[in-house]
Amino acid sequence: MKKFKLTDLLIFIVTAELVGALSALFSGDFSSFYTEIKAPPLLPPSWLFPVVWAILYALMGISAYMIWQTDDSVKCRSTALKLYYVQLAVNFSWSILFFRFRLLGLAAAVAILLLMLVGAMILAFTRIKKLSAWLNIPYFIWLIFASYLAVAVYILN
């Protein structure tokens, strides 16, 4: 196990937060989006999304740091980190597809793909460090809800 370095931890957290911030930036003005569509039941207020995502990105960064910090000889560490970065890239693309390009069907499919990738990532993290996997359970639960919203918006519109 590597020695704890606050700067390394912060790099992981900031990287995850930047992915979210850049995705939001490239998505355009999505504040009016939900007023222009038929909204599904249980749609939360728009102010809640950035709050939830900021927390989830921080947890993602912390959990990835914990995996990265494990001994290099752990076989599945590389696979776990690859899954982390792939899901982060897919996560980045979702808002752009949904809000900027309004590709609702594709965005719904990407949301489900993201849910499966995060499930696989959690399983990979569990094999290395259980706490790092548990830190992603709120993300997984939120993605179940987000997938419902994405599919419902697609169906209703």
UniProtKB/TrEMBL annotation:
Topology class, membrane: Multi-pass membrane protein
The keyword Protein transport appears for this protein: no
Subcellular location: Membrane
Gene Ontology biological process: tetrapyrrole metabolic process
UniProt cross-references to Pfam families, sorted A to Z: TspO_MBR
Membrane-traversing stretches: 9-27, 47-68, 80-97, 103-125, 137-156
GO CC, one annotated term: membrane
Record family assignment: Belongs to the TspO/BZRP family.
Protein name stated in the entry: TspO/MBR related protein
